[in-house]
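Researcher: We're teaching a course module on how sequence relates to structure. For the next exercise, students receive a sequence and then see the predicted structure as tokens, so they can try to spot secondary structure elements on their own. Here is the exercise chain.
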Amino acid sequence: DGEWFAMDFPAWEGKPARSAAVAEALGMAPVELLSNQRDYLAIFEREADIRALVPDFDKLGKLDRAGMIVSAPGDEVDFVSRFFAPAMGIREDPVTGSAHCALTPYWSKRLDKVTLNARQISARGGELVCEQRGERVIIRGRAAFYLEGTIKV
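Model: And here is the predicted structure for the students to work with:
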């Protein structure tokens, strides 16, 4: 899509959840907690909260969901996020398309916007444009080739 790579994913609607273990694993209680078929989505008040998180990866790995998405309104974008999945061998993923399957429907409803500018604020980080299209989510981002190869089957 121009200079952006666009991917079409299913939208993952979250349902309200409760878990004292989440706040303990994150070191801070979210203002809202949702869960979907794979992950928790913990909402915080400010971008600074997301940047300040220093999770306990052992505790995160023992939760009843594979991944932990954390998010808040962004200072310069619609929302920011980070994604942790130590149960899948990923302490923190730099930019996570699947997390935005849950983030896009949440922020689209909350901000009453169809197209959202997002930033994943991991150490490497990334900028995304997310679009809510009913039961689908279009996620656009820039990518750089780092490896090329051929597979013979």
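Model: If you want an answer key for the exercise: The two ends are 30 Å apart (CA to CA). Residues 33 and 130 are 21 Å apart (CA to CA).
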